[in-house]
Design a protein that fits this description.
alpha/beta, 41% helix, Rossmann fold, 5 strands, binds adenosine monophosphate
Length: 143
């Protein structure tokens, strides 16, 4: 069940570290990590190209920044770069797709974000649980 674990992270370093430690304590299996960048919707009124080019440019910037952050967070973790996934889309959908594509047995996810508005919502964990193609383990992440 824990041969291949996919840890879903929101790029909060302390939350990611807790999840990573938990994943590593579950056995000697392969640990993967994923962060999903949510699409940006720039109002047409402020996109001078009216083509969505500004939106795409912002998304590319967000993806590059997320990749850099993942690298920082997971440096020294033993997770090689090819197992640090960064994709664009709806988090739950992309996490499910990655789990299937990489033949993951268990997704490990925090019950809530640690800080800010997201902490109140707790929506990612619920969405990942719903219709998950593999086992999902939620870990309570303290404030
Ligand atoms: P939330 O439901 O947004 O409060 O977040 C709960 C957990 O979902 C976090 O602790 C992370 O494990 C995971 N998570 C949240 N946002 C993302 C994201 N954009 N990409 C991957 N995992 C995420």
């Amino acid at each position: 069940m824990f041969d291949k674990i996919l840890v879903a992270v929101d790029l909060d370093p302390e939350g990611a570290e807790l999840l990573l430690k938990k994943a590593q304590s579950l056995g000697s299996g392969e640990v993967w990590a994923i962060h999903v960048v949510e699409p940006q919707f720039v109002q047409y009124s402020i996109d001078p190209t009216f083509t969505g080019a500004l939106t795409r440019a912002m998304e590319q910037d967000a993806i590059s920044a997320a990749r850099a952050r993942m690298k920082e967070i997971f440096s020294g973790s033993g997770i090689p770069p090819e197992r640090q996934l960064v994709t664009l889309g709806r988090p739950a959908e992309r996490i499910h797709e990655a789990a299937e594509a990489e033949d993951i047995d268990t997704i490990l996810i925090g019950s809530h974000a640690r800080k800010g508005l997201r902490r109140l919502l707790g929506s990612t964990a619920n969405a990942v649980l719903h219709d998950a193609p593999v086992n999902v383990l939620t870990m309570r992440v303290p404030e």
